[in-house]
Fold:
Amino acid sequence: MAKYLFGVDVGGTTVKLGLFTPEGELVDKWEIVTRKEDCGDHIIGDIAESIREEAAKKDIAFADVVGVGIGVPGPVTDDGTVLMAANLGWGERHITSELSEILGVPVKAGNDANVAALGEMWRGGGKGYDDMVAVTLGTGVGGGIIINGKIVCGATGAGGEIGHIHLEDDEPDECGCKGHGCLEQYASATGVVRIAGRKLAESDKPSVLRDKDFSAKDVWDAVKAGDALAVEVAEVYGEYLGKGLAAVANVVNPEIFVIGGGVSRAGQILIDYMKPYYDRYVFPGARGAKFALATLGNDAGIYGSAKLVYDTWKD
Amino acid sequence: MAKYLFGVDVGGTTVKLGLFTPEGELVDKWEIVTRKEDCGDHIIGDIAESIREEAAKKDIAFADVVGVGIGVPGPVTDDGTVLMAANLGWGERHITSELSEILGVPVKAGNDANVAALGEMWRGGGKGYDDMVAVTLGTGVGGGIIINGKIVCGATGAGGEIGHIHLEDDEPDECGCKGHGCLEQYASATGVVRIAGRKLAESDKPSVLRDKDFSAKDVWDAVKAGDALAVEVAEVYGEYLGKGLAAVANVVNPEIFVIGGGVSRAGQILIDYMKPYYDRYVFPGARGAKFALATLGNDAGIYGSAKLVYDTWKD
Structure:
């Protein structure tokens, strides 16, 4: 009989679900609402019910379900314990045993950013590599470290928190982590806008960004159009990102960096501005790392969750 | 029959060898000269001969030898290929198959710094942990990253090159890697002396270090004696080391840092000066890492090499 895997990506607003073949082909995907009321107590039950409905709809017997993988927005230990997921209202929670008891199939859990990294390695921008660093440039900056095909969760679930590498002593603004001068303060979407705001305030140079509200996308569009001030912003952006990724490479020396998240929609130009600084600041012996853009977008999480359970089944 | 392991640590001047039980007890240790002439072509043969002699002396049959582990001063890939070991005169070299063919037992190889890290995890300062970062503060600054009990070699053997994390844009002096502002330029033995030299030149403050040649040990002795200028040096030292280790923790989130190398002989005081800066610059979720001093000294390499082959045998 054909075998199937389910991948689940739990977000603060919606839960994304996917049905996969063991070869990593996405058969179907759908979403349900994340019910956060009552400390998020309904979420696991809702996921179980949705998986049962999908299996019934597709005429899949549970004996043919290899398992369910689940990505959660918070620290998750190697044994699948969620330490906390504030966006869901969860404290410490043993979701793998909870969901496994309801469905009667193996369940594996991981942190959402780490799981998305695994998805990009399996079927996305990092396909074919197994020493990879995924970099998510979104509202914040996240990372996922993969060594020999396995996620590095870290001792307290904080593996890959590369957005909080300290890069700048003279940063007056505070980061979300209460630090000052973290990579995230420059390389996130908010960071791009912040750097641009500073550049605009520092001079009277003309720019399409002047005297209006603008987004990170507007800044990168202006860079592509040759706006001189926006190009200065891109240089600053590239320098901080290059420095941060060089530090990461000096620790784990990956084969490839896969760059995703909203800011990465700017495309190859972002890598082009970062690369010279990366090369300047990385240890020469680690200079050969490849850089690629993520390709799975919002589906990376369901792919990676499915891969979590695939790995256990395959072994 | 009792089983035995050999651990070998190849240095530029001497080769250290150790005979171990599978429980990691050191039965005997000795050294031979590293013959570097003829592009280091005699080294492997000399090691094989020395191991044969030891086995004969101890009446150990080769059928009872689980294998030989070997640490080499250069990048070594996961499959045991030495890419280069300039200090030995070696280019790319398949030493595991060379030595295995001579002795007829399994051979495993690793980079010397990484192997020493593994030794400290097995029987030294990191005993009982399996997510560990070893930091060697010597002439240079090296590192060994261990995740789930295994060394992170990296894609090009440059895993754990934490001494070259860039920390300072305004550093005029050049690092050995041709960069400027690497962790190694501050946290190594040379780094301590360099910082002290600058502090002495900046002011006329009295200090026991003034108007004489001094070593890193002299600086730390002065710190312990309450020398005000030396204490300023320790603060600068602690800040750079704390920043560097915080960056490492934001990538791999280890349970423990084990600090070794010549400078670490200063003892706990070194950790005390570093820790407040580490706490300031690390992501809050990774703040709980422990810090310990290495305990195996120059024997870490033979312990770790033995552990390399122990791991394969045990599996």
Summary: The first helix of chain A runs from residue 37 to 40.
